[in-house]
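### Sample
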Amino acid sequence: VRPRPMRWGGPMRVSVRGPPRMAMCSVAGPSAVDMSSPGQLRVGQLVQSCATALRPDYKDQAAFWARYLVAHCLGVKMNQMNSPDLRSTFVTKAQYAEYCRALAEVQKGRPIDYIVSSVDFYDCTFTVNESVLIPRPETELMLDMAIKQVKQQHPLLQPGVTADEPVGAKFVAWDVCCGSGCLGIALKRALPLNTEVVLADICSDALKVAQANSVRNAVDVELRCGDLFAPFEAAERADLILCNPPYISLADFAELDPSVRDFEPTKALVSGPSGLEFYERLAQELPGRLKDAGHAFLEIGHQQGPEVQGLMQSAFSWQTCELHKDLAGLDRYIVLQK
């Protein structure tokens, strides 16, 4: 799993910054070369130099991110970076110029995922830009939990069931506050053909990214624009609702890692003064949006577990209302069954 800073809580890339450092593009150490003479710098040297440049902020993750960034600048896949033949290849002037441009952006604090415009998530690859949050490993884990649970429990997802059996029956899933569409699109790829997925978000720019990602990953999903459940008709119901809403309070927002706070979309991060505003709405609206025995999976902040669970339990008599932890052992998910 690619390391990247969490939205809030748990292991994060340490980043202590004052004013942005001047973006310097050079090859550190005795191997430095003058790029006005092409063909003197090898890929392996560039990776080492990049790791040195990233280490103050990326710590023990610097080597990984150096390979990732250089792969982007070379136009190769990450799995090619371990090839001895590639590492001994000389860097072209054009490749070095792209590296300097990218490193300058990194040294301003911009997340590398935005620089390369691509993130791997649950066997899919997603385009990302500053209109959407960068998908995180903890969100990937929530999706994995959801897929395993509905595959095990829902009759339409059992082996041998097709879209025609019973006639017209569909498993309906909604990705609400979808952003890049990572949850809904990866879900569609993972479930049988008789799955209907709707992505919804209030931000039209985010939906443009989600639309591009549905094409990139060759899945057929429906996209709707609006606030929370507003894009859905009153009579519509889902078998599964996935929601990773804004959950950061205004006070906590000021304490976020600068690479998150200064670059990722504030509207997708901040819920309001308490950080619970979306969960208060979900507690009231979710029961009427799920089919009987339907499931909902919600991502939460690591200090919000008991409070969000209490909101859900006080609003409706759920068959299941469970609090689950992420891989760091922190409260991260609410799992509901109607």
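Residues 1-38 have pLDDT under 50 and may be disordered. This sample (peptide chain release factor N(5)-glutamine methyltransferase) is used throughout the tutorial notebook.
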